[in-house]
User: Fold this.
Amino acid sequence: MSHIVTETRDRIARIELARLDKKNALTAEMYAAMADALAAAEADRDVRAILIHGAPDCFAAGNDLADFVKRPSFDDSAPVMRFMRAIATAAKPIVAAVGGPAVGIGTTMLLHCDLVYAAPKTRFQLPFVGLGIIPEAGSSMLLPMIAGYQRAAELMLLGKPFDAEKAMAAGFVNEIVPPESLLERARQAALDIAALPPASVRLTKQFMKQRYAKPLAELMVEEAKVLTERVGSPEAQEAFSAFFEKRKPDFSRF
Ligand code: COA
Assistant:
């Protein structure tokens, strides 16, 4: 069964994360399906906006940590890299509806979206440092840029969970919406975009993003190189083992 559900209706391409038994932790297969879905939406002349969501109480628990244990390489052709490039360079607007866990890439992918709606109890987290790895998806540039350095440093260095209000104060959530109307609110925003002149929408998004498109692409390649080293590091392997053994990691010997 695919853990990514896609549907195109009313000029909106919908991408749903659906691996709820694992809190929508993202596998290579899921990244590949999302990259393909984004490419298909970009190529489809009838699509005017893209909507990404999970369940109202579960967006994504980040990269599947079992995949990290296998020490994957983040080269250009890796599904996660294809997905990151696709979301970072999408010409069509992307709207996200987020609730429940939004961990790791479950948060960093939002920095590439155009409109983000979040349920009040969304549990955002950037746990990279505590996992012995580093931030990805260009977030080491985007978050300081969006939130300001100290706010980003708190979220990235301490890596503690934070709620939708804090995410809104950090600047990457547009509106806090009750879980029961979350998807509808995001879908309405996508419909509003779909009703606008498409070329004007595309050009406006392009102008807003073009100044940092090249540095962002370069940074994502740099981050990926370091991430490939870091997932194999003893620090990271200790953190991943601790997660699956349901214990606190012990970094005292490093
Ligand atoms: N990778 C692999 N499996 C994951 C996962 C992940 N990132 N996140 C959750 N799961 C699995 C759990 O192992 C558990 O599986 P099991 O039922 O077979 O034991 C199941 O999903 C439910 O997770 P659980 O931790 O029991 O749910 P929770 O509601 O108590 O907590 C989270 C939810 C998201 C806060 C917690 O699962 C978590 O912190 N996950 C890891 C997040 C992370 O570090 N991601 C990587 C970022 S780079």
